[in-house]
Structure formats: structure tokens, C-alpha cells
Design goal:
about 160 residues, 7-stranded antiparallel beta sheet, 4 helices, globular
Length: about 160
């Protein structure tokens, strides 16, 4: 086999390997994950927390229902708020099949985006209180520049 063909085959193998590794790493979501699985995405839990668990020095916090993450807070702390970055963080925490359904901005400038996820609908019981009266699979992302946080939570909020 000529050298160029061998190089091309080797390069293709390496690229496929890297691509499949990246895909495997990026498929996990925090919302809906069992609490025991959350450290895979966010690292080990901190000792003190106002919710069920905090991660990365309190930068992330989760609330739970049915022993799964039903709410995830991201605190901006010393970073400048950016809507693009807030969306990126929220969608990294949310199920990959999430589809935007609606959005609304309140008087304080907080943006609420409502999403649906078929995958998430199967994680919690349909009649669970975690849905807060919303159809199963519904979750809200709250982008709060004034409050310094991004929240991803089950149900519809405004």
C-alpha cells in the first residue's frame, strides 16, 4: 500500500476515534439525571449547599425530584452575563432532544424559554409534582442577567 494511502487510512481512523469519543462525552445531560450521575458532568459535590447538592465551589446547584435532577442553577459569580453563553450552558445541562416552544421576557429583563423533550418526559412519572402542572417533558430555562444566574427547571415558569 502506498505511503499516502496508509497515512489517509490512519488519519481517518484517528478522526473517527476522536469524533466518537467527543460524541460519547457530550451526550449526557444533567436535567433528569439520577443524582449519582451528576458528578460525571459537573465534578464532585461540594459539602455545603442550599439545594440538594452544589458543584464547582457553588457555581452549580441542583434540586431533585424522584432522586433525579429536576432543577439546575448556574451562578455567574465573577463572569459577565452573556445571553449566548447562558443559552450554551443551559442547553449543555438539558436533554439533547430539547426543542424551543416559546419565550417571554418579564419587566426585569429576565428571559424565560420553554422547551419540550420527549426523552425527559420518560424520566419522571407523568403525574409527578416535579412537572409543576405542566405537560410531561416541559422545562423552562430562565436567563437572569440582573439575578446573575441561569436556571434550567422542570415545568413551565414565568
Amino acid at each position: 500500500m502506498p505511503v499516502m494511502k496508509k497515512m489517509k487510512k490512519l488519519l481517518t481512523t484517528v478522526l473517527l476515534s476522536v469524533t466518537s469519543t467527543v460524541a460519547a462525552v457530550s451526550t449526557a445531560a444533567v436535567l433528569g439525571s439520577p443524582v449519582a450521575d451528576v458528578p460525571r458532568e459537573l465534578g464532585p459535590a461540594d459539602n455545603k449547599c442550599h439545594l440538594t447538592a452544589c458543584y464547582q465551589g457553588g457555581k452549580y446547584a441542583i434540586g431533585t425530584a424522584e432522586s433525579k435532577a429536576s432543577m439546575v442553577y448556574f451562578y455567574w459569580r465573577h463572569e459577565n452575563f452573556s445571553l449566548a453563553r447562558s443559552r450554551s450552558i443551559a442547553l449543555r445541562l438539558a436533554p439533547r432532544d430539547a426543542k424551543l416552544v416559546s419565550n417571554k421576557t418579564n419587566d426585569n429583563g429576565t428571559l424565560f424559554e420553554v422547551y419540550k423533550s420527549r426523552q425527559l418526559a420518560t424520566v419522571f412519572q407523568v403525574k409527578s409534582e416535579a412537572w409543576r402542572g405542566s405537560p410531561a417533558g416541559t422545562f423552562t430555562v430562565m436567563h437572569s442577567p440582573g439575578g446573575g444566574k441561569t436556571i434550567v427547571a422542570l415545568g413551565e415558569s414565568e
